[in-house]
Amino acid sequence: MSSRKRKRESKPAKSDLISQLPDSILHSILSLLPIMTAFRTSVLSSRWRYLYKDFPLRLSDYFFNLDTRPPHNRLHMPDPVVRDPWFSWLRMAVFSIFNSHHGPIEILELSLFFSFEMDRFVKTAVQRGILELKLVPFGFGRDTYELPLSLLSCNTLHQLSLQSCRFPQALLPSIFPNLRELRLDSMPLPNDLLSKCPSLETLVISTYYDGPSISISSQSLRKLVFHLDSTPTELIIKNAPNLESLMLADEATITNKLKVLDAPKLQRLGFINANVRAIQLGRTVIQQHKESLKSLPPTFQVNVTPCRMNMLSSVKTLAIKMEHYFEKPIPMILKCFPGLINLDIMKYKGNGDKCYLDKGMWEEQGSLSFLDHLKTVTMKGFWGDQCDVELLRYLVVHGKVLQTITLLCSKHITKNFVDIKKRQICIEKRASSNLALVFFRDTKENVHFSLWNDMIYY
């Protein structure tokens, strides 16, 4: 035997330190891996052969969603699903995972399965303590998937996302006992659903099709998000004593009437479109005159009666979307929020370039009460037009504690442009000595306002 061979045989083998870890730690490691990678570890050695059967299972969207299909072979119609080899392979893989796995199921997202398959997966997930569940039924034709009663009574579920599903007609007296977050897309909201969910804190509603109005009453709800751009609906916040955040799609208050009747803890509100159709905050109502709906600029009326609630003064952060056709309702809207601290404005030029500005409009307002508290202003879509300048000048001259005005500019920024705008805004006459005026080039233009859109469309 050669000396090289003897040396190689006498060298001790490297110990596998990871495999020496206890099962609980290895389960935690496996739960952080992509699902297929975790299951492939079963072929490493006898030590790893059965570990995958007991670790917390997280079957999420990257594995089950339609978008995981190869782009050249993606299906858009449900009919050929059964015949498609890719879907058949995926279905077999999922069934194999479920049949062999015996541990808890923490996250499950299903978007490729039929009614009887959905029932099977949902039942298994409930039995194993599901925490997060997303259902996007596929292949139901005109029928939507009816949620099983076992899911409605699941006491481990914290997050639930549903698309094109339906609730049973007769709901239990109490459902989803520990559900914190509910997202509904393309499906109705049962009238008594929220009152039966004792722990619900976040509700997201997209593409609502059922009925002329949505009425919200909930003792536990803290965050409410509406994605209602085009459906003509009346949104009524009737009784929400713990609601802190109400977020609306950019165009929601143009096509929808908004009524916030009782939300005494509301702190964040937006977007309020300056071309608002009708909005009621407490007992303050702002709406367009009917005869002016097709005219430019439109005229607005404000009806104010004594308000018994502190809801309006509780709002600290407000987002407004405005076109310079519709400057006139802005002072009316701002008067409704005397405790405002943060003001976010999304500007867009609209179809025309003409600015219907009443030059004396802002001077007539005097020093509104919210200016005693306003600290930050962010304007997205700043072009430096006269409408923008007049509004900013008013805030600068009267904002007593204003700290920062951030302007996201939709054009190239030069030193000359900045100097001119500072002069026009009268920065030297600022009421707050700590005020900083900051200019940024906005590369995303007006299609995305991350301060709000990331929270609304998440």
UniProtKB/TrEMBL annotation:
It holds the Pfam family F-box. PROSITE patterns: FBOX (PS50181). It comes from Rhynchospora pubera. It comes from the Eukaryota. Signal peptide: none annotated. Residues 15-66 form the F-box domain. This is F-box/FBD/LRR protein. Coiled coil: none annotated.
